[in-house]
């Protein structure tokens, strides 16, 4: 084996010596010419590869342009424009049980009067106006879109039609007749707080205890605690129902804890008002805090 390697090395050295001798015999001009031909051939090869790739890329671009769906591009462009031109939510929804004073509050906000406040409204009262308390102020006044949604059980579904544009919800509670209506008010409020659109958009809710100027009116703290207690019962009873029977996607509160409004994903506050007495400053502040200029 070692002898074979020695012979192979000798043979390789002999070939190398012969090659050098042959190269030395060639005139330098021929060597330079051969190198130039080699370099030029390499250049042509690389240039050909580049041209081929360039032509292929052009064909690919032309094919993409010819096959591109311009209709889809137009639809996408329109969606982007709608996204950036989406109007700001400036609507305040006023709702609650029948007789809680929604219509009185609507007219108080609009022009400081009572109008048909003692008549139960069966159709939404809707208007865009500058708050009556701000009409005497100087400077630019931004109008508010207010919708008084009827509180009758058969008409509450109309609330869903207005939720996409809602900046806030004012839920009225009759502070005088609260106890007889506590269960019904809690059920309606529960339905509002668990609506998917309310939770996803985190629409703020003001629970407005109305008629607090009356001697027999309950305090807002008492009303808050009773509503939380009733909603906690509703949450427990409805959680036992099959999810196939539930119309709302979201549940309230933290599992294993007693319900409190502070657990809601959207902000829920409690305020006081007297529609007939004209004391509605807390609801006006709620409106200004949530309607963007």
Describe the model.
GO terms for molecular function: GTP binding; GTPase activity; metal ion binding. This is Signal recognition particle receptor subunit beta. It is a single-pass membrane protein. It is a single chain. By secondary structure, the chain is of the alpha/beta class. It has two domains: 2-66; 88-290, P-loop containing nucleotide triphosphate hydrolases (Rossmann fold). It is built from nine helices and six strands, in the order αααβαββαβααβαβα. It has helices at 2-25, 28-67, 70-84, 102-111, 158-162, 178-193, 196-201, 220-239, 281-290; strands at 91-96, 125-129, 144-148, 166-174, 205-210, 268-272. The chain has a six-stranded mixed β-sheet with strand order 2-3-1-4-5-6, with helices on both faces. Helix 8 (220-239) links the parallel strand 5 (205-210) and strand 6. Helix 6 packs across helix 8 (220-239). The longest helix has 40 residues, at 28-67. It is elongated and about 125 Å long. The N and C termini lie far apart (96 Å). Residues 80-86 have low confidence and may be disordered.
